[in-house]
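Predict the assembly for these two chains.
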Amino acid sequence: TAGITQAPTSQILAAGRSMTLRCTQDMRHNAMYWYRQDLGLGLRLIHYSNTAGTTGKGEVPDGYSVSRANTDDFPLTLASAVPSQTSVYFCASSDSLEGSAEAFFGQGTRLTVV
Amino acid sequence: GQNIDQPTEMTATEGAIVQINCTYQTSGFNGLFWYQQHAGEAPTFLSYNVLDGLEEKGRFSSFLSRSKGYSYLLLKELQMKDSASYLCAVKDRDYKLSFGAGTTVTVRA
């Protein structure tokens, strides 16, 4: 079944360590997004990519980096994790930039930084 | 940045109607989306509006007024399974998709 896959499902990470959250989609979607979801704050955009080879900053990019080497993969890296990065991370993709293209979400990665 | 506001919580009775309002201020506009998210799950798409007016999809309808920066999601004939968070999201001129904080709807028997 086509879809968007995130790994790992959950992770406990020591502060100061680095980690890469993986996101892969097999729908050949152009646009991909990374969000974090915190209670009371909703989904906040971290980084996005409109097409392979390009990335852009969202609302809360500090402490995170992304790359988009190909259409399918959009990894999110935390270079040196801090407790405030404890959150649920969702990756999403959409068919195109066009307005009507809905975003499809992965099942999320629950990250705890201790 | 974007500014998208919606109520935090709403409670309604099974079989009733609930209207969730969303107001937004964004840099450009390329459409407004409503998503449903059950606890512990990923958001799923409900509706899309880009022109003024009402879009109806079964028990769910969504309305948009671009001049007022306003939308609402109408849920009719509420069922227990409709208990969830409802997220309003706007795509701006750069096609970035930004979300409001979400409205938690609780349906009571």
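The mean pLDDT of chain B is 94. The two ends of chain B are 40 Å apart (CA to CA).
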